[in-house]
Amino acid sequence: MSWTRKDLIGLKDLKREEIETILNTADSFKEILTREVKKVPTLKGWTVANLFFEPSTRTRISFELAAKRLSADTINVSGSFSSVVKGETLLDTAKNLRALVCDIIVLRHSMAGAPELLAGALPDMGIVNAGDGMHEHPTQALLDMLSIRDRLGGLDGVKVLIVGDILHSRVARSDIWGLSKMGADVSVCGPLSLMPRGIEEMASVYTDLDEAIGGKDVLIFLRIQKERQESGLFPSLREYHRLYGMTDDRLKRLRRRVLLMHPGPVNRGIELTPRATESDHSIILNQVTNGVAIRMAVLYLISTVLSGLRRT
Ligand code: CP
Q: Cα-Cα-Cα-Cα dihedral of 164, 168, 174, 180, to 10°?
């Protein structure tokens, strides 16, 4: 097993073998989730704190379920109800969680680099990045890879197109790093105003969706992030949908085996029509289901390293 990290901050720094270890571990955990009693004692006695400073449905709930399926105790701390609003720093909050004998912190934060800051300052705690600003969302990309692997049998040579707001998307960055390391051929498509500088060094870039879709196996549509956007990056949501959405017309023209994915939450009628969201091409809910196995794998692998560190 090639896993030596006490933290998971991003996929940019991970080796292909490390990503494979997480995906294979998640595969072995999937069976537990089909049992009548969906629980194993692997993390009994461990405490996982979910510290979320931004809204979340999928990530927070699946981390909590993952920890519970492994018999860990869980604590959910919402940033807006924590003492951070009274002026406590993020680092002091984390140190207090350590003093309360938490072992692993799962952190979602609007500031890129926040999980790395905690990871460096807390040598005997595990830190998992659950999305930091516009930087990375590693477990989302891992569950995306697991979902593609489930359907297509592997990732090597798979042609993936990521569509939409690449500029503001931590999911796009983690997907590009992870999928490229696993041998997939990654392209992006969207208006140039929503492309980050230097993107052409990471992926092939398209601005015309109909041209970009040709020959692709997987289409990952990204959420338009109204909360992170300055105004004027595209003319209107209607225009955006016409140019960069999975319209019913585009849906009719898709090859039979093409997969439609979205990290959620979906803005129905903007990134995908309701028909596309519900179509046989869509594996959006399979992605959500795979999130639990991926997060079980990440928590378990980190716990093995922490156990070793604490013994020495
Ligand atoms: N994909 C994702 O991060 O969804 P949530 O914001 O609901 O966690």
A: 50
Whether residues 42 and 21 fall in one domain: yes
Confirm or reject: Cβ of 225 under 6 Å from ligand 1: no
Contact 87, 129 (CB under 8 A): no
User: What spacing in Å lies between the alpha carbon of 59 and ligand 1's midpoint?
Assistant: 5
User: Whose Cα sits closest to atom 3 in ligand 1?
Assistant: 59
Task: Indicate whether 79 and 176 sit together in one domain.
Answer: no
Tell me, yes or no, whether 108 and 197 share the same domain. no
Per-residue pLDDT of the chain (312 residues; tens, 9 = 90+): 689 999 999 999 999 999 999 999 999 999 999 999 999 999 999 999 999 999 999 999 999 999 999 999 999 999 888 888 888 999 999 999 999 999 999 999 999 999 999 999 999 999 999 999 999 999 999 999 999 999 999 999 999 999 999 999 999 999 999 999 999 999 999 999 999 999 999 999 999 999 999 999 999 999 987 766 666 677 788 999 999 999 999 999 999 999 999 999 999 999 999 999 999 999 999 999 999 999 999 999 999 999 999 887
Name the CA radius of gyration of the chain, rounded. 19
Is 161 a member of any domain? Answer: yes
For the chain, what is the domain count? 2
User: Would residue 120 count as lying in a domain?
Assistant: yes
Instruction: Calculate how far, in angstroms, residue 92's C-alpha sits from the geometric centre of ligand 1.
Output: 26
pTM: 0.96
